[in-house]
Amino acid sequence: MTPATIAVYLAVGPVDLRGAFDRLAAITRQVLCLDPASGALFLFFNKRRNRLKALWWDRNGYTILYKRFSKGAFALPSFTEADGKCIELSAQDFAQLLAGLPVEELASRRRLVH
Hints:
The protein is α+β, with helices and mostly antiparallel strands. The chain has one domain (about 10-110). About 20% of the residues lie in helices and about 25% in strands. The chain has a six-stranded mixed β-sheet with strand order 4-3-2-1-5-6. Helix 1 (about 20-30) links the parallel strand 1 (about 10) and strand 2. It starts with 7 loop residues before the first strand and ends with a strand. This is Transposase. It comes from Sorangium cellulosum. Pfam families: TnpB_IS66 (PF05717).
């Protein structure tokens, strides 16, 4: 779904997904310490990990992708505070997440950002 040239960042902690563009951009800036208008894709999960919002700036505005599983949850590895605030994922890992496939192997090859 995403070209390999787009950086994908996954926020480690849960986020209140009731917020839209400005709230997710503020979280990206203030919590993740990254630029939401960089062209990267920023992923946020709710506490139950059954919903995902992705924020992306595409030259002239933000786009939000919102996915909700009707049953089950995204299969993410467990994170601790030592993991930092976000990790960078490959486009393949992101596609796996959207498909609902387990990404436990992320723990061994992820790149910690903060």
